[in-house]
Q: What sequence folds into this?
């Protein structure tokens, strides 16, 4: 009887020790609670264009000085140099396609550069002097790029469709639209690729359009925020939109209908853009103009672009 009691006591103690040892490891990070991920001052006032590859690396433009691209390694706490764009070029957006090719929008020289997976040197993929910028870009399943092209002084803008022809050359043109747009900025596709969401900084509005070749149709006002308070935006696999509320210091998470589910409070007050990354695509990285750093939070759905890179969207 005494031996049995001793064994029971030992088992009980072992269970307690196991729970104490494994308890913290099992604790999950709370969703939608943002924390600073990199030191302040790493990036210039032009910090923008975050995008993550499937290895968990995050890429952000303007590390230390304009024209650079920095990399935050998976699990890292500080950014490191990745590459430098040609002289005079300054990146504003980065995206990855299904093949892992990185595309960079150069708003200064009206270019889009491409860097194949595993490489570091950018090569010219598209150029047009008819462009004002480009500002932000998003990539469809078939590799087509949609680029926002704002005219900040005129408080107006356009959307470009850029794609390869059958002969392999790249063609770009302004998409016909059913309404005059404001300063087009943040841009992304719905998970099925049929709807294009476009944010207009001047009006603070988010619009959706159906895509029909080189034409945008079915314009619908999704949400009106205060003028000059929206910047980059992204979608997740559930079709929800994440909108950077610059000057307010939040990310607005909303349904395609425009209903806001929550406003995610950030550490910095000037978020410029965001991207989904991490091993499961459920970590949202936010670029902060105020302080020149990156912060991040966890969400409950993976990003559309992460799903696209895995060939599942």
A:
């Amino acid at each position: 009887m005494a031996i049995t009691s001793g064994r029971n006591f030992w088992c009980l103690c072992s269970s307690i020790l196991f729970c104490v040892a494994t308890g913290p490891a099992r604790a999950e990070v709370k969703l939608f609670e943002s924390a600073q991920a990199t030191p302040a001052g790493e990036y210039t006032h032009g910090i923008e264009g975050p995008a993550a590859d499937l290895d968990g690396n995050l890429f952000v433009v303007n590390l230390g000085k304009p024209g650079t691209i920095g990399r935050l390694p998976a699990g890292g706490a500080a950014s490191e140099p990745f590459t430098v764009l040609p002289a005079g070029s300054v990146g504003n957006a980065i995206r990855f396609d299904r093949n892992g090719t990185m595309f960079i929008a150069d708003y200064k020289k009206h270019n889009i550069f491409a860097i194949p997976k595993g490489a570091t040197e950018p090569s010219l993929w598209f150029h047009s002097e008819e462009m004002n910028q480009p500002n932000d870009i998003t990539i469809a399943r078939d590799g087509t790029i949609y680029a926002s092209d704002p005219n900040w002084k005129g408080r107006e803008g356009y959307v470009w469709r850029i794609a390869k022809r059958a002969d392999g050359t790249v063609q770009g043109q302004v998409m016909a639209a059913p309404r005059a747009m404001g300063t087009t900025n943040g841009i992304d596709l719905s998970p099925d690729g049929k709807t294009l969401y476009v944010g207009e900084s001047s009006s603070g509005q988010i619009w959706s359009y159906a895509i029909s070749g080189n034409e945008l149709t079915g314009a619908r006002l999704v949400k009106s925020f205060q003028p000059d308070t929206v910047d980059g935006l992204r979608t997740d696999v559930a079709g929800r939109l994440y909108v950077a509320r610059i000057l307010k210091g939040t990310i607005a998470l909303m349904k395609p209908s425009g209903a806001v589910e929550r406003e995610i409070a950030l550490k910095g007050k000037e978020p410029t853009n965001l991207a989904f990354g991490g091993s499961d695509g459920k970590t949202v990285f936010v670029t902060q103009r105020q302080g020149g750093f990156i912060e991040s939070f966890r969400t409950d759905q993976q990003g559309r672009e992460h799903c696209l890179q895995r060939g599942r969207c």
Observations:
- The two ends are 63 Å apart (CA to CA).
- The CA atoms of residues 19 and 26 lie 10 Å apart.
